[in-house]
Amino acid sequence: MQLDEQMKCWNHAAVKVLDIRRIVMEAGAQLSSYTLPANGFIYTIRGSAVLQLDGQTYKAERFYMLHGAKGSSLDIQTNEDFEYILLYYRAFLAFPSYRKKWLLAQPEVAPFSLQYGFAPSSPLGLLRYLDELEGAWIQSGSLDLLHTKSLFYQFIHEMMVQLAEQEIKTELADPVKQTLRYIQNHYREQVTLDFLAEQFNYSSRHLSMQFKRQTGYSPIDYLIQTRIAKARNLLLRSDATLSEIAAEVGYSDVYYFSRIFKKHVGISPIQYQRKMREEARTEDRPLVISESSIGRRWKSGYIDYENHYQYIDGGSTPMKRRKTSSSMIMVALLSITMLLAACSSGTATTPAAGEGTGASSNNSSTAVSSDTGSQTNKDNETRTVSTVKGDVVVPANPKRVVVLYLQGDVVALGIKPIATSEVFNGAAYKSELEGVNSLGTWFEPNPEAVIDLDPDLIIVPSEETYTLLKDIAPTVYIPYEKMTTEERLQSIASIFGKEQEAETLINNLNSKVEESKQTLADAGILDKMVSIVEGGLKGMVVVESKQYGRGSQALYEYLGMKAPEVVQKKIDVVSEAGGSNLSMEVLPEYIGDYVFRSVYEGADNLTDDPIWSSIPAVKEGRLIEIDFDFFYYSDIYSINKQIDFVVEKLLAAPRAQ
After folding, report:
1. What is the per-residue pLDDT across 124-177, written as a single tens digit (0 to 9) for each?
2. Phi, psi torsion values for 85, nearest 5 degrees
3. pTM higher than 0.90, yes or no?
4. Is the pLDDT of residue 318 over 50?
5. Cα dist. 401→395, 518, 634 in Å?
6. Fewer CB within 10 A of the end CB, N or C, for the chain?
7. DSSP 3-state assignment of 253?
8. 605: Cβ–Cβ under 8 A, 6 or more apart, which residues?
9. How far apart (Å, rounded) are the C-alpha atoms in residues 145 and 133?
10. Closest listed residue to residue 67, CA positions, set 89, 45, 46, 39
11. 636-652 and 485-496 are packed helices; what angle lies between their axes, rounded to 10 degrees?
12. How far apart are CA 182 and CA 202, in angstroms?
């Protein structure tokens, strides 16, 4: 971006001063990897230091001006006592016509994101404005804040004059480098594409495109790989538990961490640890243990918008190598596919569900099914659906439906989408989605993969996914966490004109519930206390709400069974997902006549734990293990199957006295 273009931006800008502060650093002090939370000016007043902004070095003597974009990484190494003023601001193009013109001309460039440093020709003029800005900012009254904004414009004008006089070279901050650096430093934290885009003042779409163009990966796939690389290293170099490792690399759910690990490495974390340590002992090759390169042995399983990379020296090199080899493989596969197609006799085949391949399919098996059989006469009709985002016009007979997370309710209504978010292998409706494209985790789908599928209807479960996908096709946002199972089903049914089918499903569920309650009552079980737990040797989570999942809806909401009093008090008042982390020592107080434990691959074996084994429900055989996958979902399809499972297991367990 040229300086005159930046001046035009300032002429169309609305600004807000966010903070101004004066900072003194002692000789020898350092500031390392500080991320600028907003666009900012750094103006040195006295002393000298070496400043680095996104790796670019500036030698700052007295009266030196440096500008950095939001998200830039700042390092300071002082040579003597060093004082500077730091001014943060936010600016945006205020007039829609100019903003649109800017986006059309250079959509991948964020305004006000220039990086530059220079020694002003008239340093005291700039200092005068900054001093006055600081004084007005400290006063913080309404008039003072207005004065601050006025002074800021004058400061910008003076600085632009001096920049033009000296013909200072400016450069754009590289959002890809900034993103790489941020992920390397913050992979333990919750990171999303929208957050990264906001952090570096870019749109999500353009940041993703730029990142993928340079690295061959989406930002989220890069993040995943960073976490997995760190996890591999911890598995080999430490005796930390899976829960501890998962938390260290940014996953609060150890089960989800295990699944992600297996998907990318090919085997579970425990199997990987055992295999690699065995190889190290057998072959006496300590270098095997230290291997953690992203560029080797990585298994690119799917498009995953789950929000990774590792610490690197010249980081993207191994990724580029991988991209090249992947391209060669794709060329080979394409050649084979074309050869097979040429030799075939015209028989249509159903594509397998690529784990996030994002490949579109026109095969008729992925079209929305219809109970009426009158699709051909309705192809051009539409339906208006009222949503929390306003009315949405959708096709009356959609054929290419993409649904995130809510696929169980969609399947229950007799609809087969062309793509969904990732479905756990043990989900009750897994087999119903055979051949359907997977788009990765539900909360961060890949927009490019969705675009490639050319959907005519999208159903999403969150504000974030709605914002991400709403411009691709008619998109309906279902705030599922604020709805009962029945309300959610009815809302989804209204999109497809299947209200009657939804009513039938609800009536059938209610009938099953009544029959099941009667069966349990006849067996003397319905009035017994039940507990639901998840965890291992280091502690347990005890479920304390009907909305937690892990069978809480089937047991506490539909079957109406009760928990021990200490737990039931919370269930009666908690309206959101809730649970308590308890040590093994106090756990027995929270266990009822029957205990359901959510288990998953890699879960701790509690057989030899004396406290666990002494709990009456465990000791007397009334422990029922439930599969995490199967009990994760709360749609009407899954709830039906979960009730069947619960009743069957309760009847089969020894009777509580």
Report:
1. 888 888 988 888 888 877 777 788 888 888 888 888 888 877 766 555 567 787
2. -105, 135
3. no
4. no
5. 10, 39, 21
6. C
7. coil
8. none
9. 9
10. 39
11. 140
12. 14
